[in-house]
NADH-cytochrome b5 reductase
Amino acid sequence: MFARQAFKCAQPFRQSFRQFTTEAPKRRSLAPVYAGIVLTGAGVGLYRYNSGIATAEAPKRESVFVGGDQGWVDLKLASVEQLSHNTKRLRFEFPDKEKVSGLQVASALLTKFKPEGAEKPVIRPYTPVNDEDEPGYLELVVKAYPNGPMSEHLHSLKVNDKVDFKGPIPKYPWEANKHNHIALIAGGTGITPMYQLARQIFKNPDDKTKVTLVFGNVTEDDILLRKELNELENTYPQRFKAFYVLDNPPKGWNGGKGYITKDLLKTVLPEPKEDNIKLFVCGPPGMYKAISGPKVSPKDQGELDGALKELGYSKEQVFKF
């Protein structure tokens, strides 16, 4: 499993690699139609066009989390959805339903609780999976790990229970077309910051970044956010490719079998010599050790090691969440 301190490939990776094709022809522009419309009179609103649909520019909403010296904010659990035997989607509501979280891409929030009889509270970072522009709530996808104090606590919550949050905690500042091609190498719950980044890229019609995802898990049921990832791949087949690898694949599985290996990465990642690429890594300690080497602290990425170093990537081309 990914918690092990080294990765070995149980079987060769047999999933076929599809090269990125040229960008699909753009839809026929509606600009001439709009250009022919003459807007007169006072109070004409500001409009923007996305996929040919005119929508009013929404006013900027206030944020729940503003960082700096803001203290902890307690949020009430509004709903719980069981995604698998050990994973839940938890929705926490904001007191003001018109406010947004205030998270940027990529950033996370800290969660806190104090176990009964403990001297110090447990504090863990989580990356919400809902769109940062959605007002009124945030959602966490949480997998319960044995002896994981925070994940077990979150799984024990009932509707209307509260949790302390703080943030946002900046990770990697993103702007449209910052890189030509990025690769997301994730294990288990490490998919959440990767999905946050991918979602931001594909919701922006001006961002043309290509994205490759390599996602490792123990079983097929452990693949988090698979529906959302499939939707991205079906909607943007020229720009998004996802490769799944399972420790214990079911019969008939056509994806990768075993662990994420150097041979797999060599096959599917953009080459080190490609212009303006970035590789992101997020997963358990064993994965960092095998793929990129661990980071020293949130502010110190540490040296590049593991498979990515052996494949010729530079420290500057890799970011460890």
User: Anything to note?
Assistant: Residues 1-18, 21-55 have pLDDT under 50 and may be disordered. The longest helix spans residues 191-203.
